[in-house]
Amino acid sequence: MATILIVDDSTSMRQMVGHTLKAAGYSVAEAVDGVEALKIAKSEKFNLVLSDVNMPNMDGITLIKELRGLPAYKFIPMLMLTTESVSSKKMEGKKAGATGWLVKPFNPEQLLGTIKKVLG
Amino acid sequence: MTIDMQQFHQTFFEESFEGLNDMERELLNFEAGNGDSDAINTIFRAAHSIKGGSATFGFSEVAEFTHRMETLLDEIRDGKRDMTSQAANLLLKSVDELRAMLTAMSDHEDIDTAEVLHLQQQFDLLLQGDEPSQAGDKGVDVSADVEQESAAGTGWKITFSPHPHMLGTGNEPLRMFRELGSLGELTVSVDHSKLPSFDELIAEECYLAWTLSVVGDIPLVSVEDVFDWVTDDCDLTITALSDDSVVREDGHEETHDSTTDEKLALVGNPAEEKRSGGERRSPLERRKPSSAEASSIRVSTEKIDELVNMVGELVITQSMLNQMNEEERAEGDDEKFKDGLAQLARNTRELQESVMRIRMLPISFTFNRFPRMVHDLSIKLNKKIELKTSGEQTELDKTVMEKIGDPLVHLVRNSLDHGIELPEVRLKAGKPETGVVHINAYHKGGNIIIEITDDGAGLRKDKILKKAIEQGLVGKDEVMSEEKIHDLIFHPGFSTADVVSDVSGRGVGMDVVRRNIKDLGGAIEVTSKEGVGSTFSIRLPLTLAILDGQLVRVGSETYIIPLISIVESLQARPEALSSVAGRAEVYKLRDEYLSIVRLHEIFGLEPKHTNLCDGLLVVVEGEGRNVGLFVDDLLGQQQVVIKSLETNYKRVEGVSGATILGDGTVALILDVSGLIDFSRHGSMSAVA
Questions:
Q1: Residue A94 backbone phi and psi in degrees, to 5
Q2: In whole angstroms, what is the distance from residue B114 CA to residue B103 CA?
Q3: Smallest Cβ distance to B56: which of A87, A101, A105?
Q4: Which of B277, B265, B264, B295 is nearest to B101 (CA)?
Q5: What burial letters (b/e) apply to B217-240, b meaning 16+ CB within 10 Å?
Q6: Which of B9, B170, B265 is nearest residue A76 as measured by Cβ atoms?
Q7: I want to staple B209 with a disulfide (CB 3.0 to 4.6 A). Which of B33, B191, B422, B675 is the partner?
Q8: Exposed (0-12), middle (13-18) or buried (19+): which is B355, by Cβ within 10 Å?
């Protein structure tokens, strides 16, 4: 089964996303910010990265840029969890190499729908 | 699949309250002129997380409210607007309001919509009022682009030619086609004309282009959604198929609905906004302690690891002892057995300490509320006050911390109100205009010490003494040490404030503060110098679960006296004993008369000694008074684990709890304050 890395500084969001994905049978790893995510991503291989944008230490856009630079993550789908109010961030994220985005708020069904879209 | 979102609510509330504390702290830094871009980012992130979470978990009022905060903060972050004191104050009020809203929600109560609307209007005014014209998109408008355009019953022709780098964004044409295929009947033709010769081919680039047609009653947005992420990474045209080329196919409309829902979720429900609450209360008053005392606790993984490790050690020791029990006894086994027991004792002690540490939190959780309080009160009092805190990382038990919060607030308020003088008074006295209140915490022995120091006016001895004599607390000609006079302020009903102020002196006196601290097994003292300032020093046990006790024997029973309340123990001299009115016995200790409480009488026991000079007097202190407890003998001192009598049996006067001693017998822990009350009134109901 596909493995997914969730990056979000909000515990409740991580719990919700993590719980939903695990219930759907994915295996999940969690990180609280870009720095931790980068460390985990280098030690394990993931099929998908889901990252929040606004985080302390390293934000989601920098994380995606860093990950895209790694050979192992060159073609791996990476989705940003974002809100509409930062539409400029979507473009910034795309430029950094994000595959797409998932607009908050989303419910578990929408989350799984989007995941299916990229993991096929 | 259905996921119960309620299970995440508690976490959401907890992290939101933490976020609000962060916001408050950083906003106050701004007020003090110490704000920077890091601070703005922290504030923004907190508002952003609360907004995202509340929208996700279905708290639309909170989401809408924080959206306005976020818009303002976004403009400040982008440098389009300054953090004016007006903005900071509005944000601070919003922090209070959000706290109230979240508290209400976690308690399943209605929120005060009137205040919410009021603040929202202020945000709207501020946002529209001056310069930045609609900076950032407002996010809540359901724009026209979701109109119900559908190629009614026909389908769509799509030309799709990805830019060479598209694969590098993780977008895979195959998956997109599969998604299109789920919308309707799909036909695909590929254009490979751009494919270079094998030598020039770069495997990571995309050279192919496709023409696709998808047939069915499909809304345009559903098709657009498929390509939503790659609009900038490809050339794309979507045109309606002409009617004649189509076979009709039904039932693929759902996708569209879900996307509109998601956009609508942020738009507040106007009907709900209308049901406004009754009278307006200030958010601070609505902040209820019940939910502020969160029922769960966050523990660092480090502490947990330590515990796991410790349990492992314990298991090893246990198996070692077990093995020794099974094997044939041999020479030297006693020694090994002793070693094993010693190891077990060490493991147990370490395990106990680790478990205790789980409940320990840094006192910063309590200190956090003071910057805001000092900020608000100094405005109200027209004083200039700087707050310093130190020792925020000092840890203490969560329960103790929750209970010490209110007494601390009271003391800090007192320091601000009565301690620090008005700026002009300070200048006249040759002091700097700005007064300093310093809150410090540190560990000392098995206790935590919290000190509140101000460089204000100090306690006025003459005034205190005069008042005390007026109230009959002190005899006219009594000679009292400075210490004793200062201590009078903790006497019930004592107040020297000339005017009952709005800030302190609401009828809750220092006596209540002392009693609350006593209830926690702690003590409070004051040292003060007129014109220089005062220091209130609080000593608290680190935990309520364990107590340092003095074991005493009365008849055949063992009792425990909390060590903290013992002043001294002595053997009575006959000449110092006397009895008042033939009954109440007193003992003259230096210049003081102590009432004597015979424990054997209270507990109805047959004592070893009835003559006061044969046993021992343990002088204990409580409620500002000393009494002598008459016991047969002093035994050892040890830490005891407190077991509640109320939960296991029923409340017994004169006894605060029980514990189990090493030999398995139960010993009662004496309630010193209760015994002192007894000596005062000479009666005690229902003594077991």
A1: -60, -45
A2: 16
A3: A105
A4: B277
A5: bbbbbbbbbbbebbeebbeeebee
A6: B170
A7: B191
A8: middle
Which chain A residues contact residue B262 at CB under 8 A? 103, 105-106, 110
- Which is the catalytic residue, given B29, B414, B440, B626? B414
Q: Does A4 touch chain B (CB under 8 A)?
A: no
Tell me whether residues B15 and A98 touch, CB distance under 8 A.
no
What does the block give as tokens for B188?
Answer: 């695909």
* Global pTM value: 0.55
Measure the N-to-C terminal CA separation of chain B; round to a whole number of Å. Answer: 60
Cβ contact, residue pair A76, B1, below 8 Å: no
Please report the residues numbered 61 through 80 in chain A whose beta carbons come closer than 8 angstroms to any beta carbon of chain B: 68, 74-78
* Distance between CA atoms of residues B428 and B36, nearest Å: 36
Collapse the DSSP code of B2 into the 3-class scheme (helix H, G, I; strand E, B; otherwise coil) and give the result: coil
Q: Which of B24, B48, B375, B516 is catalytic?
A: B48
Bridge-partner residues for B534, per DSSP? B454, B528
Q: Spell out which residues of chain A touch residue B137, defining contact as CB-CB under 8 Å.
A: 84-85, 87
DSSP for B30-59? HHTT---HHHHHHHHHHHHHHHHHHHHTT-
Q: Tell me, what DSSP letter sits at residue B240?
A: E
- Which position among B24, B26, B61, B70 bears the catalytic label? B70
pLDDT band at B496 (very low <50, low <70, confident <90, very high): low
CB contact under 8 A, A99 and B167: no
Q: What is the pLDDT of residues B611-648, one digit of tens each?
A: 888 889 999 987 667 889 999 999 988 888 888 787 77
Alpha-carbon span B33 to B41, nearest angstrom: 16
Q: Which residues of B5-39 are buried (b: 16+ CB within 10 A; e: fewer)?
A: beebbebbbbbbbbbbbbbbebbbbbbeeebeeeb
Name the DSSP class of B196: P
Cβ within 8 Å, pair B5-A24:
no
State the Cα–Cα distance between residues B534 and B8, nearest whole angstrom: 47
B457 neighbors B524 (Cβ within 8 angstroms): no
- Interval B301-320: pLDDT, tens: 788 888 888 888 888 888 88
**B70 among known catalytic residues:** yes
Instruction: For residue B344, give the H/E element and its range.
Output: helix B333-358
pLDDT band at B268 (very low <50, low <70, confident <90, very high): very low
With the CA atoms of B314, B315, B320 and B325 taken in that order, what torsion angle do they form, in degrees rounded to the nearest 10? 100
Q: What average pLDDT does this structure show over B464-481?
A: 80
The CATH T-level fold of domain A3-119 is Rossmann fold (3.40.50)
The CA distance from B502 to B507, in Å, is 11
